[in-house]
Every structure is written in structure tokens, then in C-alpha cells.
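Hi there, hope your week has been kind to you so far. Do you reckon you could talk me through the fold, stretch by stretch? Thanks so much in advance, here it is.
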Amino acid sequence: MHRPRLAVTGAILSILFVGCAQSHEHVATGTPAAANRPASESPATTAVTAPPTSAAPTTTAAVDPVADNAQAPTVHHAATTTTTAPLPPATITVKFQPHDGETATATLVELGTTQSLADGSTVFRDLPAGTYTVQIDEVFPTTQSGDTGIGAADTTRSHPIAVQDGDNAVVSCDASDCTGIS
């Protein structure tokens, strides 16, 4: 008489253990059990009633798998938006001091823009990003030495320089060469 009850009790307990293990499978896998099932298969509540094994009837409380698998609320941080002002256009400052009596000009070859270097420097402003060739043209005047005239001479030096928005590049030239820093 006790053997059939033990067999029934063992079967019920094994069903409860399997059900309990399935409802807590998120502990082993890291994902909620309800997330592994389509919504149509997930029951809202499950009630299991065991047959009495003793004189007092025993029932288990209804289990809500959604509440059982509840996770901590997700905290969403407000996105930090950093607005940066656009960089100003680039500038190139050209420095060259012409010798006494000479005239000198600086040209950005790509733009065809020429400016005087009479004061020893000039600034090309509002340049879009790119590579520019700075060309220095130095003109020596015609001079006289006694009865002999020495003709005018023209010397040209050039130096490429790359600039990006916001750059303030400097090209410095002397009697033999030009160097640039951007």
C-alpha cells in the first residue's frame, strides 16, 4: 500500500524538480527562461496540485514565471553630447625679408594669389584644407657699376605645405631655401 504512494510521490517530485529547473534556467545560462520561449508558449501562471500523501491535502502556490524571472531594471544613462564649434579655415604666414632695393612677393600657386613681402611677412587667410605651394619671387633691380649696367634678376623659391582647418602654418624663407611648419 505504501509503495504505490511512494511511486506517485516520486513522480510528482520529479515533475516539480524539472519544472523548477526550467523556470530557473536563466541562472545557468544567463538568460531568462521566458526569453527562450515564444510568447505564445509562455504561460502567465502555473498551478500544480499534488495528490495528498498524508491526511492533510498539500497544494503549491501559483508560480508566475515572469515575476520569477524578473531582472534588475536597466539603467539608461543620458547620452552626453559634446558640441564642438567648427574649426576656422587655415592660414599660411610667409616670412621673407627682401634685401635693400629688392622687391619680393609670395604666391600660393594653386590659387594664383600673390601678396607683397615688403614688410617681411604676409598672411594668406581663409584657406580650405589642402596642400599649397608657397612660391617666393625675389626681383633684384637693374644696377649700374660705372658705365656697365647689371640687369635685373629674378629668383624663385618654393615650398609645399599641407594645412587642415584650424591650422596656422608658417613658411620661412632665406636667401637659399624655405622651410615650413604647420
